[in-house]
Amino acid sequence: MNNKLGYILLLLTIFITGCSSSPQENNKQEQSIGILLSDTGLGDDSFNDSAFRGLEKARDELGILFDYREAPDGDFEGAFAELVKQEHDLIIGLGFSVQEALEKTAKTHPKQRFLLIDGVSELDNVTSITFKDHEGSFLVGMVAAMTTKTNKLGYIAGDDVPVIKRFEKGFEQGAKYVNPSITIFKENANNFGDAKLGAKIANKQIKKGADFLYHAAGFTGAGALQAAQQANVYAAGVDSDQYFVAEKAVVTSMVKKIDNAVFDIAKSLKETGKISKPIYELGLKEDGVGLAPIRVAPLTSEEKKKIEEATEKIISGDIPINIQ
């Protein structure tokens, strides 16, 4: 009896140990993130590619799995529905254009955590990240004004919406901070995915005398950068360092550090299982925006110092930027 009793107790111990290890194993399961890219999708050398780099870094350094969707047909709700079915720990909506579909999906799935980039949502299960694009664009405007020989600049917008207007406002005020009499030609492409249209608008502005172009127009803007290179004038990229789009033209880029923001959110999710704040607003102070290295048209030491001083004054509030 004693032997049988000992054997039974041993089996019970093994059984109990096996059962108790299951939750621990579940806790060690890899976390995952799903993302719906904005209209133009991967390969824009800008907004989407930056976010994708952040997820790749999270995968490589944190072991977080991810999947992505593109919706060139505009079916954002369908793409979000697919990601929800995959039961990700977090689903990211990239860009203001997906906000309506994201919020509709978030209301239907209140237990699913979402992240909206470039928009602000008041829903409890949606975290929002916006960037102070106007601060980085102010610095680009300074570079443009220091570089131009005609005192005429060009700006191309992808759409007439508040987030894109911030680029324009910052760029204009930065340029006029250096030279109040400077002229800026502006045009709205109403399109983020047409490089030929971007080149057409750029050439129109160049014919008017613009010798430095800036855009907030995604892949449409990439066409403008290439047109600037063909016309032997300068340009600035946006969101990512776009020097390699047109190496003879791109002096700098207004870098919106979406990759860092996505990685930081993923890291918080990995380490704590949650996201600490409902809304993040990232500017120069938070290292959320800034300038890519200045190439092609090197600035003088005095000009570089002036940009550094302006950066400090923007952070301190001594240089206010009107975005209205």
Task: Describe the SSE topology.
Elements: H1 2-27, E1 32-36, H2 47-62, E2 65-69, H3 76-85, E3 90-94, H4 99-108, E4 114-117, E5 126-131, H5 133-147, E6 152-157, H6 162-178, E7 183-188, H7 195-207, E8 212-216, H8 218-230, E9 234-239, E10 250-256, H9 258-272, E11 279-282, E12 289-291, H10 301-316
Parallel strand pairs: 1-2, 1-3, 3-4, 4-5, 5-11, 6-7, 6-8, 8-9, 9-10
Antiparallel strand pairs: 10-12
Helix pairs in contact: 2-9, 3-4, 5-6, 5-10, 7-8
What is the CATH class of the largest domain? Answer: Alpha Beta
According to CATH, the fold-level topology of the largest domain is: Rossmann fold
**Rg result:** 24 Å
Helix content: 40-55%
CATH superfamily of the largest domain: Response regulator
Number of strands: 12
- The global form is globular
- State the separation between the terminal residues, measured CA to CA: 87 Å
Spatial sequence of strands, sheet with the most strands: 2-1-3-4-5-11
Q: With helices defined by DSSP (H or I, 4 residues minimum), what is the helix count?
A: 10
Number of domains: 2
Q: Please outline the major beta sheet.
A: 6 strands, parallel
Order of helices and strands: HEHEHEHEEHEHEHEHEEHEEH
Task: Kindly name the structural category.
Answer: alpha/beta
What's the architecture of the largest domain in CATH terms? 3-Layer(aba) Sandwich
Pfam families: Bmp
Subcellular location: Cell membrane
Keywords: Cell membrane, Lipoprotein, Membrane, Signal
Main location: membrane
